[in-house]
Amino acid sequence: MIIFVNRARWSLGYQGIANDYLPTGTISGDPTEPVIEGSASLATNSGVYQKDVYALTSRYIIFHEMGHQLRQGGHLNGLHRWNLMSGAGTTPPTGSGLVLSAWEKQELGWLTFTEITDDRLGYELADVTASQQAIKIPASGNNYFLLEYRKNNTYYEITPESECPDAQGLAEGLLVSYSSGGQPTIRPADNDVADVGTPGNPRFNGDATDLFPNSGIIEITPFTTPDTDDHLGNPTGIAITNIHQSGDKMVFNIYQNYHTGAWSGNVTSNTAWGGNVTINSDVTVQSGATLYIDAGTTISFASGSTDLWVEGQIIAKGTSSNPITFTASAANPQPSEWGTIFVESDDNVFEHCTIEYSDWGIKIYDTTYLTGNVVKNCTLENNDQGLRFDNADVTIENNTIRDNRHGVVAINADGLFTGNSIYD
Questions:
Q1: On the chain, which terminus has fewer CB atoms closer than 10 Å, C or N?
Q2: pLDDT in tens, 341-363
Q3: 87-118, pLDDT tens digit by residue?
Q4: 3-state SS class at 249
């Protein structure tokens, strides 16, 4: 590939151009003052060309034209200017970004997506430029979601704010896009996709609020705006939640079957609950199924002996700032307003949860001795019994157990019991 960067003015009608063939003429003489002979013009017929090059701030143009040569294709406008090969926008740099997106890199064979088809908690993703990592979550058929962590970390990505969305505001976060078999389309956190083109040639403008968790938007689910529906508007069930930065990684949860609102029936396959979930009759998490409860979720139980039975597994991991709440749906609840969380299996987790107004709170018991269950950093209050474990080895750590008729009841039990506060 021959690259000319010069100060010549030429009426291209574009800022740059790329072609994939060489001229029919010849180049000879001193390399500093080459003699170009022949019927074809080097500038218009070969390599890549950028006009009016007076400063490195316009370097994105030559990178963009080199991209045309490398991928032998046109513009990719669906990524809202968060890629190198977008075609246009209303502010400089006329739509092109500064670096290749994950999709463009995999198209060139420079990156292989990590495909995730199961549920993941606290998944850590390094930035795409430094790590060449990106996540592919299949939806249906050839459709999939693509996750990449965008972060300015090289000289070539640092530019004045007016030049590129990568440099505006936070300019760092998780970029979520969706592909229906071809080039992806962004799902911006702020749901703001400004189309400044024509129906046949859509052109988009990007800014830092396209990235999660900018503006405090920390999730995209079937029930948010934007959502995780497919290109036909059909729910995929996929959710990416609790998106946050930790050190040099972007961290988030991935769920394949996410639900909010009223729930009826048993949990027969891996399922995640989030938002506000209401339970009006007994629910059993059947053997072989896992129920994930997302941080910040509130589960409200109807009055009476409405129970949650866990024969499979429950993973209820809140955070100190986003705890999970198990409570009564009644307006003025009292202790024993609803039933109990019955745990009849190994390796269940309750962290940063509040359990209130129940009969027995959490009861861990089975005829077979149970192990691996954890209740940690939880608050159990205003229940008849806060916590009961029979025939089990349980870790009970750093909990507040207060204002219950009985705080903790243990029968034929063992485990770690430390750092707990129990009082009326």
A1: C
A2: 999 999 999 999 999 999 999 99
A3: 754 544 445 667 789 999 999 889 999 999 99
A4: strand
Q: What is the 3-state secondary structure (H, E, C) of 95-150?
A: CCCCCCCHHHHHHCCCCCCEECCCCEEEEEEEEHHHHCCCEEEECCCCCEEEEEEE
DSSP-H helix ranges across 182-287 = none
Q: d(Cα 139, Cα 288) in Å, to the nearest integer?
A: 23
What is the sign, positive or negative, of the torsion defined by CA atoms of 81, 84, 85, 87? positive
Contact at 8 Å (CB) between 364 and 373? yes
- The answer to whether 313 and 340 have CB atoms below 8 angstroms apart is no
**Residue 403 burial class via C-beta count within 10 angstroms: exposed 0-12, middle 13-18, buried 19 and up:** middle
- What is the rounded distance in angstroms from the CA atom of residue 403 to the CA atom of residue 388? 15
pTM of this structure:
0.83
* Alpha-carbon span 281 to 307, nearest angstrom: 7
Identify whether the C-beta of residue 376 lies closer than 8 Å to the C-beta of residue 351. yes
pLDDT of 106: 93
- The one-letter code for the residue type at 245 is Q
Q: What is the Cα gyration radius of the chain?
A: 28
Query: Quick check: helix, strand or coil at residue 403?
Result: coil
Tell me the per-residue pLDDT of 195-249, one tens digit each, with 9 for 90 and over: 656 666 555 567 778 899 987 899 999 999 999 999 999 999 999 999 999 999 9
Distance between CA atoms of 108 and 92, rounded to whole angstroms? 26
- Structure token pair of residue 13: 């009608």
